[in-house]
Design goal:
Layout: H1 4-9, H2 40-48, H3 74-81, H4 83-90, H5 96-102, H6 113-125, H7 131-141, H8 162-165, E1 203-205, E2 208-211, H9 213-236, E3 241-242, E4 245-246, H10 248-252, H11 254-273, H12 278-303, H13 311-339, H14 355-379, H15 395-398, H16 404-412, H17 416-421, H18 429-439, H19 442-461, H20 468-479
Antiparallel strand pairs: 1-2, 3-4
Helix pairs in contact: 2-20, 5-11, 6-9, 6-13, 6-20, 9-11, 9-12, 9-13, 11-12, 12-13, 13-14, 14-19, 16-18, 16-19, 19-20
Length: about 475
């Protein structure tokens, strides 16, 4: 349900995509018993929380003090459950319209795969960094809040957030007059108040490695970057729906959707700087650049498609898949390990313990992300299912995109070529392309390739010491390909 301010911003049009069925396919959806409001992958990632044992009862859940020994991942369960509250706190704005639109996609339940990956990787690797881990724990204990500003003065100089700092006093800053340097020893702009929250502490549980506040914040940052990309993608693709509900552009308009995506990236950048690691800032900043590079590669693939099936064309498709999807998973997993003290991340010379863990985390996230996207591309050719969280029925084809199933089918059926070259733009092109893919081995080859990447992710993460978190990470490599069978 939209708030009154959201309803006043929303447009009335709520269009939906057409619905047809695929008559020929070698792959069928796994049976789903999840509610329609929950995507199949959301159910899969939830099961990763309880790979070893059933989840704890609701009466025993806690945000930061869970101590259940029966469920090694109860702390992570609680943190994922509180993710929305954490994100809303980070995205507070005095501008009502911006506050509403920036939080719009967080209203619905999403997959939360990226925050889950960060938290699991943190718990699976914390303690492997030796002296680096001890240093990170000590620094964490000395901080008042993960929202501590690096700037000595408050106000708009360091971005006033009413969720964190409270409402700014009327007249506290005047812009109708020039800024003047105050007399020595006086501040023109006072440091804003800081409301310390439940998200500022470590997540601890008996018998399990603690998760540091910086790693908790990283989990939220990854979701903010992901959702910012969704806001921008929905504008580019003119998508009327997102997770079965009206998209932000169709509800609030393209301008507010784009600006809200920019706002998310801005707040994510502020939060990144406060984590205190230059390497983590660099990693996540390159993710933002990767997302843009991937989108431009996708635009080029539709405007200047390959004229024949080629290794280069498929490599470009796979590179775009990494840039748009897997980069965030790979680099945020690596960042989680760095924040746990693995490797000499900032050149301090303190410790190189656990340097190898950084590569394990990156490789796991990269391979899992590519497997995830390949399965997503296969699902686009299957009959629609309310639990999928995406429209299916050739949505990618309608955008002019030739994904792995179509590229594989093209190798056997040359008639796919003209459809790709004209971006499936003529009446009946999408249906013909889906029929060609259905009678080819394109879907099966796509799923097989996804399994190859998922297996590689599993082999990497199995190098970590045994733990409940490691088993959950292994479980994700299975769940990602079980969305089709």
């Amino acid at each position: 349900m939209l708030s009154r301010s959201a309803r006043s911003l929303a447009q009335t049009s709520r269009s939906s995509r057409p619905s047809r069925s695929l008559t020929t396919s070698r792959i069928r959806l796994s049976p789903s018993t999840t509610p329609k409001s929950q995507s199949a992958w959301a159910a899969a990632t939830e099961s990763a929380h309880s790979v070893l044992t059933p989840p704890p009862s609701s009466s025993s859940a806690s945000t930061s003090t869970a101590t259940s020994l029966d469920d090694p991942l109860s702390v992570i369960n609680a943190e994922i459950g509180n993710l929305k509250s954490s994100l809303f706190r980070m995205l507070g704005s005095s501008n009502t319209a911006l506050d509403t639109v920036a939080k719009y996609y967080f209203q619905a339940e999403g997959k939360h795969l990226r925050p889950l990956l960060v938290l699991l990787m943190a718990q699976a690797t914390n303690g492997l960094g030796g002296t680096g881990w001890e240093k990170m724990k000590m620094e964490s204990g000395s901080r008042r809040s993960i929202d501590d500003s690096l700037t000595s003065q408050g106000g708009v100089l360091n971005d006033w957030n009413p969720e964190v700092n409270g409402q700014e006093a009327t007249g506290s800053q005047v812009f109708a007059s020039p800024f003047q340097i105050p007399p020595f020893g006086q501040q023109s702009i006072p440091q804003p108040p800081l409301n310390v929250s439940e998200f500022d502490g470590s997540l601890q549980q008996n018998g399990q490695p603690m998760i540091l506040p910086t790693q908790r914040r990283l989990a939220s940052i990854t979701e903010m970057i992901h959702v910012a990309s969704l806001l921008h993608d929905d504008v580019i693709d003119s998508s009327p729906l997102r997770r079965g509900e009206p998209s932000a552009p169709s509800t609030f308009g393209n301008k507010l959707a784009i600006l809200s995506g920019d706002f998310l990236l801005g707040r994510a950048s502020v939060a990144l700087a406060r984590l205190g690691s230059r390497e983590v800032v660099e990693l996540l900043a390159t993710v933002i650049a990767n997302l843009v590079e991937g989108e431009v590669m996708q635009l080029k693939a539709t405007s200047e498609p390959e004229t024949t099936p080629s290794a280069k064309g498929f490599e470009d498709y796979m590179r775009k898949t990494y840039l748009k999807t897997a980069s965030l998973m790979a680099k945020s997993a690596r960042a989680a390990v760095i924040l746990g003290g693995c490797g000499d991340s900032d050149g301090s010379g303190l410790s190189k313990d656990g340097e190898w863990v950084k590569d394990v985390a990156y490789g796991y996230g990269r391979n899992l992300g590519i497997a995830f996207q390949l399965i997503d591309d296969a699902l686009d050719f299957l009959p629609p299912d309310p639990s999928l969280g995406k429209p299916s029925l050739g949505a990618d084809l309608r955008l002019g995109l030739a994904t792995a199933p179509a590229l594989f089918a093209w190798e056997k059926y040359p008639e796919m070529g003209p459809l790709i070259l004209r971006k499936f733009s003529e009446p009946g092109d999408v249906e013909i392309a889906r029929e060609i893919v259905g009678k080819s081995d394109g879907l099966q080859r796509t799923v097989d390739l996804a399994k190859t990447f998922a297996e590689a992710a599993r082999e990497l993460v199995e190098r970590l010491p045994e733990s409940g978190a490691r088993e959950a990470l292994i479980g994700l490599t299975k769940k990602v390909v079980e969305r089709v069978k």
